C-alpha cells in the first residue's frame, strides 16, 4: 500500500518544519528500512516535508511513530501537524503538489522540479521502488498537463517572485541595488532569474559549501569569498538566502547598525508604513527562502535590518484566478482516478499469466505435433500461423474481461475463476 506523511505550511509552523528538515537524512534512512517499507521518497521543500512510502501492511500509526522517532519529535506533536494519505489518495495528493496546487503561492513552478529531484535522489540511493517510480513519473506528466492546459503556473507566482514583489518599493532602482545571493542550488538559479527579470545587475553570490565560483562563472556574476562575506554584507542592499544549511548562516553577530543612505523606515511585518519620522538610513533587506532557516530570526531585532521569511511570504500569497485552479484540480482528479484504475488492473496480471501459460503450453504441444506429421513445410507453417491466430482470438475476450475485473476492484474474482477452471487441469490433455 502507498502511504504519504505530509507536514506543510498549512498544518505546521515554520519551527516544526525546520526541526524535521534538519533531520532529513536520519528520517529518510529510518523510513527506508526494509522492515518498514519497500521504498521511500522524501520531498523536502521550503514549505513542506513529505515522506512517500511503498509499505504493504504498514499501519499509518506505525509510520507516524517511525517519523517522530527519527525527527526527535513527540508523537503527539507530529500527529497534530501531519496529514496522512493512503492508497489511491496518495496519487491525487502528489499530483496536486507537483502541479503547484498545494503550494503557499498556488501555481508556483519550482515544485515540479523538486518532485523530479526527490525521485531521482531516491533512485540514486536505492531507496525507490517500482510502485513509487510509477507514481512520481506520472506526477511529473500531470504537472506538465496542468501547466500547458490551464496556464495556472503562468498566473501564479513563485515564492521568490512574491518576496521580490513585496520589497519592490523598498528597493527602488533594481539596476543600482547591490544584491547578495546565498546558495548555488536549483532555487538559487530560480532566484537569480527572478532578480534579473526585475532589472537587477549588481548581483554577487556566496556559497557555504564552496560552490560560489562555479555558479558565478556559469551565470555571469561575482563570487564572494568566505573571508569577505562580512564586508559584503555591510555594503549590500538586499540579501536573498536560499542555501541548504542545518543551522542559520547569518546570525545577529554578523550585523550592526551601519546602513547605507536611503529612505524612510518600513514595518518589520512588511504591511504598513510607521509613523513618519525624519529621513534616516535605508535599511538592509533580508529575504530568507531557506528551510531550515538561513538567517537567524533575531536578526530582525537589529536596527536598520528588515527580515522577510517564509511565514510572512506565505501570509501574503495571492489567490490565483479561480477558473484556472478549478480546471487544474479537475485534471488532477481525473489523472488520479486513471492511475488508481491502472494499478487495480495490474492486480489481475497473475490471472492473465496463469491463463496464458495454460493456453500457450497446449498451443506449443499442438504446433509440435502438427510439424511432425506435415510432409509439406509450407503447409506446416500455414497450420502453425492459423493455430496461433486462433489462440489469440480465444484469449482476447477473457483477457479484456480480466482487466475489467481488475479495474473494478475484483481482480481476486478473476484469479479465483482462472485457478478454478485451469489451475489444476492436466495441461495438454
From TrEMBL:
<feature type="binding site">
    <location>
        <begin position="183"/>
        <end position="188"/>
    </location>
    <ligand>
        <name>NADP(+)</name>
    </ligand>
</feature>
<dbReference type="Pfam" id="PF00745">
    <property type="entry name" value="GlutR_dimer"/>
</dbReference>
<comment type="subunit">
    <text>Homodimer.</text>
</comment>
<feature type="domain" description="Tetrapyrrole biosynthesis glutamyl-tRNA reductase dimerisation">
    <location>
        <begin position="327"/>
        <end position="423"/>
    </location>
</feature>
<protein>
    <recommendedName>
        <fullName>Glutamyl-tRNA reductase</fullName>
        <ecNumber>1.2.1.70</ecNumber>
    </recommendedName>
</protein>
<dbReference type="InterPro" id="IPR036453">
    <property type="entry name" value="GluRdtase_dimer_dom_sf"/>
</dbReference>
<feature type="active site" description="Nucleophile">
    <location>
        <position position="46"/>
    </location>
</feature>
<dbReference type="GO" id="GO:0050661">
    <property type="term" value="F:NADP binding"/>
</dbReference>
<keyword id="KW-0521">NADP</keyword>
<comment type="similarity">
    <text>Belongs to the glutamyl-tRNA reductase family.</text>
</comment>
<dbReference type="InterPro" id="IPR015895">
    <property type="entry name" value="4pyrrol_synth_GluRdtase_N"/>
</dbReference>
<comment type="pathway">
    <text>Porphyrin-containing compound metabolism; protoporphyrin-IX biosynthesis; 5-aminolevulinate from L-glutamyl-tRNA(Glu): step 1/2.</text>
</comment>
<feature type="domain" description="Quinate/shikimate 5-dehydrogenase/glutamyl-tRNA reductase">
    <location>
        <begin position="168"/>
        <end position="261"/>
    </location>
</feature>
<dbReference type="InterPro" id="IPR036343">
    <property type="entry name" value="GluRdtase_N_sf"/>
</dbReference>
<keyword id="KW-0560">Oxidoreductase</keyword>
<feature type="binding site">
    <location>
        <position position="114"/>
    </location>
    <ligand>
        <name>substrate</name>
    </ligand>
</feature>
<feature type="domain" description="Glutamyl-tRNA reductase N-terminal">
    <location>
        <begin position="6"/>
        <end position="150"/>
    </location>
</feature>
<feature type="binding site">
    <location>
        <begin position="108"/>
        <end position="110"/>
    </location>
    <ligand>
        <name>substrate</name>
    </ligand>
</feature>
<dbReference type="GO" id="GO:0008883">
    <property type="term" value="F:glutamyl-tRNA reductase activity"/>
</dbReference>
<dbReference type="InterPro" id="IPR036291">
    <property type="entry name" value="NAD(P)-bd_dom_sf"/>
</dbReference>
<dbReference type="GO" id="GO:0019353">
    <property type="term" value="P:protoporphyrinogen IX biosynthetic process from glutamate"/>
</dbReference>
<dbReference type="Pfam" id="PF05201">
    <property type="entry name" value="GlutR_N"/>
</dbReference>
<feature type="binding site">
    <location>
        <begin position="45"/>
        <end position="48"/>
    </location>
    <ligand>
        <name>substrate</name>
    </ligand>
</feature>
<dbReference type="InterPro" id="IPR015896">
    <property type="entry name" value="4pyrrol_synth_GluRdtase_dimer"/>
</dbReference>
<keyword id="KW-0627">Porphyrin biosynthesis</keyword>
<feature type="site" description="Important for activity">
    <location>
        <position position="93"/>
    </location>
</feature>
<dbReference type="InterPro" id="IPR006151">
    <property type="entry name" value="Shikm_DH/Glu-tRNA_Rdtase"/>
</dbReference>
<feature type="binding site">
    <location>
        <position position="103"/>
    </location>
    <ligand>
        <name>substrate</name>
    </ligand>
</feature>
<dbReference type="Pfam" id="PF01488">
    <property type="entry name" value="Shikimate_DH"/>
</dbReference>
<dbReference type="InterPro" id="IPR000343">
    <property type="entry name" value="4pyrrol_synth_GluRdtase"/>
</dbReference>
<comment type="function">
    <text>Catalyzes the NADPH-dependent reduction of glutamyl-tRNA(Glu) to glutamate 1-semialdehyde (GSA).</text>
</comment>
Amino acid at each position: 500500500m502507498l502511504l504519504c506523511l505530509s507536514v506543510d505550511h498549512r498544518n505546521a509552523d515554520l519551527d516544526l518544519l525546520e526541526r524535521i528538515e534538519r533531520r532529513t537524512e536520519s528520517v529518510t534512512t529510518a523510513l527506508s528500512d526494509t522492515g518498514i517499507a519497500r521504498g521511500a521518497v522524501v520531498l523536502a521543500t521550503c514549505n513542506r516535508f513529505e515522506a512517500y512510502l511503498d509499505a504493504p501492511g504498514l499501519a499509518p500509526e506505525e509510520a507516524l511513530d517511525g517519523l517522530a522517532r527519527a525527527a526527535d519529535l513527540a508523537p503527539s506533536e507530529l500527529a497534530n501537524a501531519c496529514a496522512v494519505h493512503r492508497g489511491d489518495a496518495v496519487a491525487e495528493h502528489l499530483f496536486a503538489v507537483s502541479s503547484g496546487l498545494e503550494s503557499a503561492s498556488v501555481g508556483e513552478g519550482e515544485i515540479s522540479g523538486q518532485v523530479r529531484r526527490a525521485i531521482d535522489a531516491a533512485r540514486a540511493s536505492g531507496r525507490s521502488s517500482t510502485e513509487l517510480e510509477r507514481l512520481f513519473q506520472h506526477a511529473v506528466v500531470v504537472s506538465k498537463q496542468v501547466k500547458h492546459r490551464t496556464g495556472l503556473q503562468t498566473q501564479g507566482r513563485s515564492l521568490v517572485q512574491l518576496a521580490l514583489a513585496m520589497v519592490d518599493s523598498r528597493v527602488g532602482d533594481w539596476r543600482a541595488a547591490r544584491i547578495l545571493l546565498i546558495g548555488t542550488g536549483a532555487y538559487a538559479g530560480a532566484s537569480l532569474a527572478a532578480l534579473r527579470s526585475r532589472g537587477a545587475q549588481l548581483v554577487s553570490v556566496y556559497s557555504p559549501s564552496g560552490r560560489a565560483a562555479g555558479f558565478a562563472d556559469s551565470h555571469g556574476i561575482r563570487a564572494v569569498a568566505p573571508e569577505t562575506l562580512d564586508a559584503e554584507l555591510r555594503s549590500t542592499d538586499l540579501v536573498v538566502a536560499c542555501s541548504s544549511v542545518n543551522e542559520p548562516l547569518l546570525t545577529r553577530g554578523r550585523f550592526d547598525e551601519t546602513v547605507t543612505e536611503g529612505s524612510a523606515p518600513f514595518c518589520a511585518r512588511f504591511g504598513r508604513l510607521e509613523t513618519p519620522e525624519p529621513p534616516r538610513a535605508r535599511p538592509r533587506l533580508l529575504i530568507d527562502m531557506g528551510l531550515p532557516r538561513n538567517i537567524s530570526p533575531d536578526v530582525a531585532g537589529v536596527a536598520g535590518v528588515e527580515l522577510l521569511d517564509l511565514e510572512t511570504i506565505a501570509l501574503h500569497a495571492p489567490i490565483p484566478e479561480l477558473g484556472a485552479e478549478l480546471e487544474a484540480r479537475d485534471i488532477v482528479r481525473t489523472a488520479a482516478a486513471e492511475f488508481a484504475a491502472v494499478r487495480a488492473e495490474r492486480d489481475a496480471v497473475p490471472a492473465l499469466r496463469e491463463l496464458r501459460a495454460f493456453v500457450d503450453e497446449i498451443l506449443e504441444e499442438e504446433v509440435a505435433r502438427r510439424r511432425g506429421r506435415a510432409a509439406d513445410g509450407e503447409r506446416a507453417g500455414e497450420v502453425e500461423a492459423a493455430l496461433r491466430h486462433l489462440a489469440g482470438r480465444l484469449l482476447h475476450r477473457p483477457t479484456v474481461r480480466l482487466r475489467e475485473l481488475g479495474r473494478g476492484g475484483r481482480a481476486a474474482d478473476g484469479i479465483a475463476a482462472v485457478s478454478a477452471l485451469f489451475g489444476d487441469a492436466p495441461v495438454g490433455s
